Amino acid sequence: MDEIIEISNLTKHYGETVAVNEVEFSVPRGEIFGYLGPNGAGKTTTIRMIMNFLKPTSGEIRVFGMDSSKEYPQIHKRIGYMNSDMKLYEHLTGNEMLLFFSNLRAGVYKDNVERLSQKLDIDLSLQIRNLSRGNKQKIALIQAFMHRPELIILDEPSTGLDPLMQQQFNEIVKESVSDGSTVFLSSHILPEVEVLCDRVAIIKDGFLITEERVDVLKKNSVQKFEIIFSVNPPENIFQQVQGISNISIDHKVVTCSLIGAIDPLIKEAANFDVEAFKSFETDLEDIFLSYYKGSE
User: Fold this and answer.
1) Per residue in 118-143, pLDDT tens?
2) What pTM was estimated for this model as a whole?
3) Which residue in 127, 135, 123, 138 sits closest to 89, CA to CA?
């Protein structure tokens, strides 16, 4: 598979502080890759090293097969980038700002800028200093997508967007991938990652905890169940089921969590008269928290 980003043993020290520690992952062409973790976990530091804004203490980063520290001018021509706190030229209008970026890239992207501004409902004739934070965020997003780059790197891209604009942003990301782009998305907003990403890496205190497809993470994660019996079940029900935890009995209602196969749970419940058996879909937030707690 054609790897767009390849990271090997990436480490960054700030004095005695280790911001990123021997991180390794790769992102294939056409994927939406989520880089997940709370503020201070090492997400932005990793991105700044990918962009060659920071030099790694050790390790290697290759983008489009090129060394990011030596061949970054060629790499940057093929990337759309938005950081978590992008500074815009406040005295310019949105149109002027985007024209400036177009000139830097030696291209004219009027049609795509118009399409994106309509999707994001932003008036580009206004001076940037007069815009809300959310509307400034929209301009930052447009400049990242407008030239249809091969790789789009987004650091906390939806901060300041309302729910409707979040939906529009999701559509823009998916359309870009359909057109051949690859997306690297750093975020601490779990529903955003769950909706968009094919695969995620979870980072904590500079260490990569796990890297997996979202559907596989959910399949192998804790499942939650509620079983309603016709009479009160015995107090030790399900105690012998492998992978069971958090058993709670409230008269005829039993709730529990399970990692692994559910067949033993069903067979144990079938020894009694069951009125209802409910399972609850695990979301990415539950998975994220379980990995964080499990690594402490």
Assistant:
1) 999 999 999 999 999 899 999 999 99
2) 0.80
3) 127
Contacts of 56 (CB under 8 A, 6+ apart): 10, 11, 12, 20, 49, 69
Regarding whether 172 and 44 lie in a shared domain, the answer is yes
Contact present, 149 and 74 (Cβ < 8 Å):
no
The pLDDT tens digits for 144-186 are 999 999 999 999 898 778 888 989 999 999 999 999 999 999 9
| CATH number where 203 lies | 3.40.50.300
Q: Are residues 287 and 147 in the same domain?
A: no
* Residue 94 · residue 128 · CB < 8 Å: yes
Those residues with Cβ within 8 angstroms of residue 13's Cβ, 6 or more apart along the chain or in another chain:
19, 57
For residues 39 and 116, give the distance between their C-alpha atoms in angstroms, rounded to a whole number: 29
Nearest to 47 by CA among 71, 3, 1, 79: 79
